[in-house]
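Phosphoinositide phospholipase C, pasting as requested.
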Amino acid sequence: STRHKDDADLQVMMAGSTFRKVKSHSWKKPRHFRLLEDGLNIWYKSRWAGRGHSTFLVSDVEAVRQGHQSEVLQSIADEFPPNLCFTLEFRGRQGNLDLVAETPEEAGAWVRGMRKLIHKAKNMDEKERLDQWVWDWFLKADKNKDGRMNFKEVRKLLKMMNVDMNEDHAFYLFTMADTSMSSSLEIDEFVMFYKMLTQRDEVWKLFQDYSSDGEMLSRGELENILRIEQQEGDGCVEHAQELIDRYEPSEMARSQGSMSLDGFQLYLCSQEGSIFNTSHKDLYQDMSQPLSHYFLSSSHNTYLLEDQLRGQSSLEAYIQALKRGCRCVEIDCWDGPDDEPVVYHGHTLTSKILFRDVIATISEYAFKASDYPLILSLENHCGVEQQRVMAQHLELILGSLLLRAPLGGEAPQQLPSPQAGGPKIGCETLTDEVSDEDETVNPDPDSPSTDQGSAECPPDPSKKVESISTSLPFSQPSQKAKLKMSRELSDLVVYCKSVHFRGFQHAQAHYKCDEMSSLSESKARKLAKEAGADFVQHNIRQLSRIYPSGLRTVSSNYNPQELWNVGCQIVALNFQTAGLEMDLNDGLFHQNAGCGYVLKPGFMRDSELPFDPETPQEHSGYAPLRLSIQILSGQQLPKVNQKEGSIIDPLVRVEVYGVPQDLAKEETSHIQNNGFNPVWNETLNFIVHNPGLALVRFVVEDHDKASRNDFVGQFTLPFTSIRPGYRHIHLLSKDGTSIPPASLFVNVSTSELTSGPD
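Structure tokens follow.
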């Protein structure tokens, strides 16, 4: 498009370049890359000639690193100078693309050009974004590149867009849009076609209900929608004017203080029309309470990109976790050659990385997503000599970022707040008996348990204590002798001294605010069921870290909600594994500026009034709510199966997670063959006994009667962050990245539960 013609860097990209794609020290192959005319997609293939090629979206790239800024490029640093090398870093869990250019000029042009395009994609407003999608579809469908589209191309396009429309209706829309009567659509005619295609009856109906002339909403009428339907209290007058200024495309309407259907639809599809309360996107919570009053986003075996037995140990895994706001990362340290400690999953085939490289990576990325304290969970299996080396690396590399003494200088009376801690990194120590590893855990509570020490369950080194901590070296079973802890390393521990958990009474009698316990998921679950109220009280004063069972060798996760329900702060998950558990984690920590700290609800910080998640109705603050969600429609849901002509049969399921009584799922029926604009108009009802702990997950699936439904997209958010009224839910992929313009349109209402439960 014309915007790119006058930028020299983008011209280089559009002309195309040949780079070496590098996967390892020995795997380096030429690949051709070029920016397509739309300025949105990068095209690449292994040879210029021949058929097969791939594309990826510029908006899928999060950042561009220049020079030897990835493990892979560092491994070939002696072969290619840094001014030829750059790394494209993708969103979500997709791996990096490491490239080597032929000249520094070409590398520079791609680095600058990509950064400009990424910046532009991030700063588009709703209207530009919409134009961009339309343009994108047009270019995809205009197969012979003559800048116009005949009816055959339009039919193909509808299939690509996940629309199964009968031919007569499609032809009718085509002729309506073909104002030049040329039997083909040019781009402006195609824009009209797209508009008719995406005409939203349910939005039009709402507009009609409030517009006196059926053409426009006056500011007063928009105000009524905001007050009555969107349940916004004060400030409706100002807000109505702001929305007109921001979303109304027609200058004429803006000057008259009114809003057209186009403007109204843009508002509903924007972040302000989203189900997620925009004020919760900012840092809105009190950050001055003791650390034990917060939930922390926490990662387990952070160094792994895949499974626990053969997976790749990687610095990239730390970068990905830290960019997602993780505030507690784990490092498994073992004695390495040349007096350099290494990080890997001990006694397994996972690859090894240097401890000092891990610390250097953490130093660079620790505070990119959050300004609040980061906890390093050092699971230490090193001898005293290499423990000293670890201490030196921590001090030298982290410098002033490392917390070396209590804040304020005296012995701590209570844990510091995230605010007081600020951008600091803390560590912690621990002896062998702190570990809870004598139990062989069965990760699935419903399956029969395995006897301790039976043949198929050898004690698993991953069950070693994993706290913000260093446990003593993992000794072979024959040497029972306790190995010494180096003074240099234990001196770096300030607030998190790991102690063995000996029961709630013992913990209370010997209370020290700077002691914490690490528990395996099964032990923590058992305590939560048997003594929930005691666990909640314990977690008001002290930190608890929970880690997955050692038998989860494929890096599967456990449901963190059960442990948040009893106030456990550090519930460590395998960040590298997508699925429900990470959706819940992302859903909880998406709020509060994504800083990785979420303040626990008031009733979980109150030592006067005990709270037990098993019996929420016995708490004096019990105030259950009715949640009613009308699922109206879906928009442009992605295809699950890329086969030509396959179109999804979508259904929506709403799941509630929280205290045991609140666990519930309800789903709509499925719609045949329509992922483009399915309409359900079905209402799902829930009773939520404890709104303060509840998370609500919206899932779209492709119905399949023969096998399991395929996942299409999801969005999870705290019950307390839901905005009532007509709202869009912007769906996320399995990896937690956005998949615009895929969305659901719903009408949400909550009310007090006056009568007893149904």
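Note for the archive: Confidence is low (pLDDT under 50) at residues 431-435, 437-481.
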